[in-house]
Amino acid sequence: MMYVMRPMRLEDIPQVVQIDRDSFPTPWSAKTYQFELANRNTSQLVVVEARENTDTSPDGLRAMWQRLRGIQVNGQLAGYGGCWLIAGEAHISTIAVHPNFRGKGLGELLLAGMLQRSIHRGGEYSVLEVRESNTLAQNLYHKYEYQVNGRRKGYYRDNGEDALLMEARPLDSGYHERLKQRLAALRERVPYIDKFSE
């Protein structure tokens, strides 16, 4: 399996909405994603597409030929993420991975890709909210140097759970070098093509 990290497109929205529904108790609507895609100055949306890299069937060869000619061929979306970049702040708004693709490092790939793109576009620091009970996500964020710096009481509407506010600061040249090292290590575990962050 090969993964392609690329900007989200309008035709991705149905799959993104389904992953959202499978991942969160209060998912975003299709209209929200349409709005975000229309605001590309501040909103950076990314998907990871799963592609078979050994498909030699006539359909697989046709798809490969179409890709070589620049014709878009969508595979199954394995995950998506969103980031708002405003006045130097890179706010990670959402990350989700399809249930069939969890545990493969794709959430980390999405986070790292959004951070790298943010740095290339002038991001100076990054913030996010995470459920207090979501220790798995918190561990990933700590790996990328986020620290808890606050709490939003009753932030999550479905159950009134608190959100922890986390921040990675600064996204300077030293952080960028460490990020590139993490991406290189990630590439050893996850075969991917990056059409988003650079």
Account of the protein in words:
An eight-stranded mixed β-sheet has the order 6-7-5-4-3-2-1-8, sandwiched between helices. It has 198 residues and is α+β, with helices and mostly antiparallel strands. Helix 4 (106-120) runs antiparallel to helix 6 (173-189). The longest helix is centred in the C-terminal third of the chain and has 17 residues, at 173-189. It has helices at residues 13-23, 30-38, 58-68, 106-120, 135-143, 173-189, and strands spanning 2-7, 43-51, 76-86, 89-97, 125-131, 147-152, 163-168, 192-194. It is globular, with a radius of gyration of 17 Å. The mean pLDDT is 92. The protein has one domain (2-194): Aminopeptidase.
Count of helix runs: 6
Share in helix: 25-40%
Question: Under the CATH scheme, which architecture would be assigned?
Answer: 3-Layer(aba) Sandwich
State the name of the first-level CATH class.
Alpha Beta
Number of strands: 8
Order of strands side by side in the largest beta sheet? 6-7-5-4-3-2-1-8
Poorly predicted residue ranges: none
**End-to-end separation:** 22 Å
Count of the domains: 1
Mean pLDDT: 92
By CATH's scheme, which homologous superfamily applies?
Answer: Gcn5-related N-acetyltransferase (GNAT)
Question: What is the CA-based Rg, rounded?
Answer: 17 Å
Strand content: 25-35%
Shape call: globular
Order of helices and strands: EHHEHEEHEHEEHE
**Tell me about the biggest sheet?**
8 strands, mixed
